[in-house]
Design brief:
Elements (H helix, E strand, L loop, with lengths): L1 E6 L4 H12 L4 E7 L4 H11 L3 E4 L2 H11 L7 E4 H9 L6 E4 L7 H9 L3 E4 L2 H18 L3 E3 L2 H13 L4 E8 L17 H4 L9 H9 L1 H13 L7 E5 L5 E7 L4 E5 L5 H9 L13 H4 L13 H12 L3 H17 L5 H14 L8 H20 L1
Helix pairs in contact: 2-3, 4-5, 5-6, 6-10, 6-14, 10-13, 13-14, 13-15, 14-15, 14-16
This protein binds NADP nicotinamide-adenine-dinucleotide phosphate.
Length: 385
């Protein structure tokens, strides 16, 4: 029985993780949950999965959760804020921590879990984008394992079982191309949040869905892959594969290419990470290749989707630059969803912010968080004018 702490339990990855737990009650149990604002869903999860510890964002949210649990026969400690999140991430009973909070808010708890030597099933790519160097150094120091949840990185991880790091030439991350793959760039200024939230192949949280529409998600994944697999920037490529059946590929030095294929359902890579290093049966729907019929590939249109180029630029610049990219992207996506900027302006905000913040060496998480807050403050101040 593996005991799990799930950070971001009320989100898309969090609920898929709990669905996996529910399907395999003999393999997994939940000891801690952490969430943001959705107290109705969290209360329901506490009733069903019976964690002994829960963390929420504020004292008021903790009170709201307690009220919802009144009368339910559950014994659960409720904490809040960053200290609560860190306690969930380092819970003494947890064998594995699922890091599935969205955005930069995932960095501190992810790092706490790694520093505590926990095995981390990582969905929160933003923590590696912001501080990959620090997170991976902490993992080396404590021996913590970081297992990818992102379907692309899970695919690479699975392919690497066959060839090993030394024989690897490059990884190729596949991208669906998002909802605007065939939309002319001239129409980008008129794209609405509702249109951008309609992803053709994956059902995900709002932020990652917009990131998929701008292709920034693939850029963040390039940076994530660099750190997870200790690659040089030149060893990470991206190809558009609209069917999202091949989740990524690995090319070895002998010219062989391995790919991992599967349905577009995050429960599959989640199950792989939770069970690692074992494999076992599942009742998930099977991939029927005869129904897929064809698998197609095309290069990324970098003119149309400049965010991918900005991500490579941040990775090449190194130091604090990827954290600046991440903060700018989070603010811009939020502003777009609020109707404050146009879809095409997301890329402009990121480009301007990168220009305004020359890279500095990564010294500490505290410095990084200060920089992150500063970038967000200045972008929000510009928007408020
Ligand atoms: N969805 C996917 O298929 C997918 C695939 C690969 C990777 N990922 C990555 O996984 C992460 C989560 O994505 P998602 O799609 O699951 O996002 P989501 O549906 O928006 O869920 C985000 C979760 O984070 C919680 N949260 C947000 N801010 C928080 C804070 N300050 N403190 C504590 N909890 C907080 C939310 O709580 P409330 O809802 O209660 O506010 C929710 O549980 C992202 O990094 C994403 O890039 C997702």
């Amino acid at each position: 029985m593996k005991r799990l702490a799930i950070l971001g339990s009320t989100g898309s990855i969090g609920t898929s993780t709990l669905a996996v737990v529910e399907s395999h009650p003999e393999e997994f149990a939940v000891v801690a949950l952490a969430a943001g604002a959705n107290m109705d869903r969290l209360a329901q999860q506490v009733r069903v999965f019976r964690p002994s510890f829960v963390s929420v964002t504020s004292e008021a949210a903790a009170r709201a959760l307690r009220e919802r649990l009144d009368g339910a026969a559950v014994r659960v400690e409720i904490a809040w804020g960053t200290p609560g999140l860190v306690r969930a991430a380092t819970h003494h009973e947890a064998d594995l921590v699922v890091s599935a909070i969205v955005g930069g808010a995932g960095l501190v708890p992810t790092l706490a879990a790694v520093r505590a030597g926990k095995t981390v099933a990582l969905a929160n790519k933003e923590s590696l984008v912001m501080a990959g160097e620090l997170v991976m150094a902490a993992a080396r120091a404590t021996g913590a394992r970081i297992l990818p949840v992102d379907s692309e990185h899970s695919a690479v991880f699975q392919c690497l079982v066959s060839g090993g790091r030394e024989g690897l030439r490059r990884v190729v991350l596949t991208a669906s191309g998002g909802p605007f793959r065939s939309t002319p760039r001239s129409e980008f200024p008129r794209i609405t949040p509702a249109q951008a939230l309609r992803h053709p192949t994956w059902n995900m949280g709002r932020k990652i869905t917009i990131d998929s529409a701008t292709l920034m998600n693939k850029g963040l994944e390039v940076i994530e892959a660099r750190w997870l697999f200790d690659l040089d920037v030149t060893q990470v490529d991206v190809i558009v594969h609209p069917q999202s059946i091949i989740h990524s590929l690995v090319e070895f030095v002998d010219g062989s290419i391995l790919a991992q294929l599967g349905i577009t359902d995050m429960r599959l890579p989640i199950l792989y990470a939770l069970r690692h290093p074992e494999r076992g049966p599942s009742a998930l729907p099977r991939l029927k290749l005869e129904e897929v019929a064809s698998l197609t590939f095309e290069p990324v249109d970098r003119e149309k989707f400049p965010c991918l180029t900005y991500a490579y630029r941040a990775l090449e610049g190194g130091g604090t630059l990827p954290a600046v990219l991440n903060a700018a992207n989070e603010v811009a996506v939020h502003q777009f969803l609020e109707g404050a900027i146009r879809f095409d302006q997301i890329a402009d905000v990121i480009a301007r912010t990168l220009d305004a913040h020359p890279t500095r060496p990564l010294t500490s998480v505290e410095d990084l968080l200060e920089l992150d807050r500063g970038v967000r403050r200045s972008l929000n101040a510009v928007a408020a004018r």
